[in-house]
Amino acid sequence: MEYRRLGSTGMYVSEIAYGNWITHGGQIESDAAIKCVKTALDEGITTFDTADVYAGTKAEVVLGKALKGVPRESYELFTKVYFPTGRGKNDRGLSRKHIIESCNASLKRLQTDHIDLYQMHRFDFETPLEESLSAFDDLIRSGKVHYIGFSEWNASQINDALKIQDARNYNRFVSSQPQYSALWRVIESEIIPLSAKEGIGQIVWSPLAQGVLTGKYRPGKKAPAGSRATDKASGANMIKGWMREEVLVAVQKLQPIAKEAGLTMSQLAIAWVLQNPHVSTAIIGATKPSQVRENVKAAGVKLDPKVMKAIDDALGNLPETDPAKTQSPKPRS
Prior knowledge:
Layout: E1 3-5, E2 12-14, E3 16-19, H1 30-42, E4 47-49, H2 58-67, E5 76-81, H3 96-110, E6 115-120, H4 129-142, E7 145-151, H5 155-168, E8 173-177, H6 191-198, E9 201-204, H7 236-239, H8 245-252, H9 254-261, H10 265-274, E10 279-284, H11 289-295, H12 305-315
Parallel strand pairs: 3-4, 3-10, 4-5, 5-6, 6-7, 7-8, 8-9, 9-10
Antiparallel strand pairs: 1-2
Helix pairs in contact: 1-2, 1-11, 2-3, 3-4, 4-5
């Protein structure tokens, strides 16, 4: 495993992070999830990403159980707040009330006294931005949170937040958690340049484009039984946008490129995002330990410029690059 600094901070994270968005508490049972976490630790992964909303809060419970007994200083724990965690009118969003209550609940579920990185899961159009940033700053000053970040914000929203943080002398954002893969490149034109200027590192999710870049979905064939594309509870709705024939045909062209590089398709896809020097870590998910062991081999891989060009040539104009695709839910009203 290789390690990188998170943005301009002094904290190092593993190039491969273990995330439990769909798996823990949902797609796989607790015992299997714990085995995946233990394998991740054995393979040198020290960075674990979750969120209060995953599996209706159960994902945090499982991760807390899996990490119990592991020296707290030996890993970095990330979680998020924004999406509904209950039926109450205040059980969502980025109000001071929900942020503080959600943080305290996450600490209990994760069985820890602090969160290394607390992230605003989306931008909240309903709450004054200063209110949200003030609450996050207070959490750092209280010792419950070490660093703060955001997920899926656009450049304008990031700029607005940084201006308030600087004006109020609040602790600044140090991370961005966007979707990023060889097929989804919307952060390259605006988010990455702004983040680089402001010392914000990228914690990228879905480097495998929901699994499409593994090559297991073949053109003209039914999706494999038990795969994400066939399981409505495990993200089938998100992957369907990539299940177009033209995409599946193009992805198959990556197979010989991966083989020549001595990599599996998954390793090639993860290594591709890690070639971007502004990426601090790439989040992987897993339903079994063997997937963890395969994917961590992408750490430290240096792809030749010819390989990077071959990937671009194979995918053609299919990758999404429009920065306007970075969106947060609209206000309830």
